[in-house]
Design brief:
Largest sheet: 7 strands, mixed
Number of domains: 4
Low-confidence stretches: 1-12
Mean pLDDT: 95
Bound molecules: adenosine-5'-triphosphate, magnesium ion
């Protein structure tokens, strides 16, 4: 799959792993065997989840649901140097928020440390693992290259009893970090470098978030992963393509150990997204370097960032389903997630009135006082969402960009002597524009036609423009944060080599003094609404009752701007 150009192209994308599982299930049925589809999502708790993880979550939980199986959540916590409980908690919150449930099947690779240790001794006793004294650098040197075979370590032929004694002393902490490792004894001449006596255990004195200081040796990813799959009875172990060359090793462990099941590994292409980074290492750099406010900064391509930005979980699931699952590397346009978000919110989000750049309008023939309550439709695409009332009064705010002193031909909004419709309210006609000493317009004077209440003229006369407004006396004053992509380059770092060079200095715009319809004071955290003609917005967790803050989730397509471009 190349970069998806159109929605239909994306919708056509398939899922080859689903096809494989369907075949497996059909074959088992033909052979009269019971088959249970069991998948897992195996994050390392060394950061928050990003959109790439969402693809893996939707795939694994989705397949389990499709085939009436189950999906486990397993923390791959074998590297205590980088892992933290904060991440363990955040990952669970994010998976749940995305809409998936692992039931009782929450696991940690660290739960298997004793079993893995026992299996390591099993390999040693069988003569297929040995303790090596070479340093990490020497091991790399001895390993050879893609074109040259490796050469054996001088310790490769230690006898099993000596290896067993040394491995036990590694475990009890007799050796320094890095002094020795346990390696599988497979094939130093293998064409696959992963099979050249891979490391199974290293000595590392670091407090583990779950096992504390119980261990000073830790299994590698390769030694822990497949065996954990086997222990949990995983049928289809799905991972990204960089593990394709590890599959022979995955299978070697399963073949050479008395594991209770024989899982199989399948690989798919990881998701890449334009104008962003999807790698925990880089995301960590953004957080630690203060380039963003945290893992859940609404500009981050993290699940928690999307949540804070107001992107619904269903839009992320829809995105993941529509990009498909293939073996070909691909980069998806960030705009495609925006499009999935808009498509969903267009039907689900209630409409509200919000003025981001307010210009005061005094309606001179409207009576002074409290004004009146007008009825507004919550969602023109869904009558079931009902109506609400919004206060209207003599002084209102409109969007500064909805007035032009000398409007060009295609500008249908307000100008001197022009009449427009105030959404859900009245027709108004501009009589005057008041300016300050510098010539800036500070206020408009208008008159309204009382006969047009609700937005229609009984004489049938039409106006071409409808604009939004908020009653000045009733308005909620808020800060509104607008977001643009975090990076200016499609592929950050592709030119200079440092992705931070491509940070977009204009990724965040903070607007203050925005005027919103008063009911927005009660908007629930996590609910996204449409500000008519502006885009989709949600309340930010930084809000206080006195100082509400809204995030723009995604803009609407601006038909005016499009017209301008055409003209
Ligand atoms: P990162 O490079 O961001 O640290 P990772 O693969 O090391 O990613 P893990 O926590 O080990 O992160 O990944 C958990 C699961 O999510 C793995 O099965 C991994 O293959 C999958 N995954 C990670 N990144 C992506 C991605 N960009 N697209 C699809 N799946 C991904
Ligand atoms: Mg990783």
């Amino acid at each position: 799959m190349g970069t998806p150009e159109t929605d239909t192209e994306i919708e056509a994308a398939g899922n080859f792993i689903r096809d494989i599982i369907a075949d497996d299930v059909a074959r088992a049925r033909d052979e009269g065997r019971a088959v249970e589809v069991v998948t897992r999502f195996p994050p390392e708790p060394n950061g928050y989840l990003h959109l790439g993880h969402a693809k893996s979550i939707c795939l694994n939980f989705g397949l389990a649901a499709d085939f009436s199986g189950r999906c486990h959540l397993r923390f791959d916590d074998t590297n205590p140097a980088k892992e933290e409980m904060e991440f363990v908690d955040a990952i669970q919150e994010d998976v749940r928020w995305l809409g998936f449930d692992w039931g009782d099947h929450l696991y940690f690779a660290s739960d298997n440390f004793q079993q893995l240790y026992d299996w390591a001794e099993h390999l040693i006793e069988n003569g297929t693992a040995y303790v090596d004294d070479l340093s990490a650098d020497e091991i790399r040197e001895y390993r050879g290259t893609l074109t040259e075979p490796g050469k054996p370590s001088p310790h490769r032929d230690r006898d099993p009893q000596e290896n067993l004694a040394l491995f036990r002393r590694m475990r009890t902490g007799e050796f320094d970090d890095g002094a020795k490792v346990l390696r599988a004894k497979i094939d130093m001449a293998s064409g696959n470098i992963n099979m050249r006596d891979p490391v199974l255990y290293r000595i590392l004195r670091a407090e583990h978030p779950r096992t504390g200081n119980a261990w000073c040796i830790y299994p590698t990813y390769d030694f822990a992963h497949g065996q954990s799959d086997a222990i949990e009875g995983i049928s289809h172990s799905i991972c990204t393509l960089e593990f394709e060359d590890h599959r022979p090793l995955y299978d070697w462990f399963i073949d050479n150990l008395p594991v209770p099941a024989t899982p199989h590994q399948y690989e798919f292409a990881r998701l890449n997204l334009t104008n962003t980074v999807l790698s925990k290492r880089r995301l960590t750099q953004l957080v630690d370097g203060g380039h963003v406010s945290g893992w859940n900064d609404p500009r981050m391509a993290t699940i928690s960032g999307f949540r804070r930005r107001g992107i619904p979980a269903a839009a992320i699931r829809d995105f993941c389903n529509r990009i498909g699952v293939t073996k070909a590397a691909s980069t998806v346009e960030a705009a495609f997630l925006d499009s999935c978000t808009r498509e969903l919110l267009n039907t689900s989000a209630e409409r509200r009135l919000g003025v981001l750049d307010p210009l005061k309008v005094v309606i001179e023939n409207y009576p002074d006082g409290d004004g009146e309550q007008l009825t507004a439709i919550n969602n023109p695409n869904d009558e079931a969402q009902g109506t609400r009332t919004v206060p209207f009064s003599r002084e209102i705010y409109i969007e500064r960009s909805d007035f032009m002193e000398e409007p060009p031909k295609k500008f249908f909004r307000l100008g001197p002597g022009r009449e427009v419709r105030l959404r859900f309210a009245y027709f108004i006609t501009c009589t005057d524009a008041i300016k300050d000493a510098d010539g800036n317009i500070t206020e408009l004077r208008c008159t309204y036609d009382p006969e047009t209440r609700g937005g229609n003229a009984p004489d049938g006369r039409k106006v071409k423009g409808t604009i939004h407004w908020v009653s000045a006396a009733h308005a909620l004053t808020a800060e509104v944060r607008l977001y643009e992509p975090l990076f200016t380059a499609t592929e950050p770092g592709s030119i200079s080599g440092d992705f931070l060079d491509d940070l977009n200095p204009e990724s965040l715009t903070v607007l203050t003094g925005c005027k919103l319809e008063p009911g927005l004071a009660d908007l629930a955290l996590g609910e996204t609404v449409q500000f008519e003609r502006q885009g989709y917005f949600c309340l930010d967790a930084d809000s206080t009752p006195d100082a509400p803050v809204f995030n723009r989730t995604v803009g609407l397509r601006d038909s005016w701007a499009k017209e301008q471009m055409k003209g």
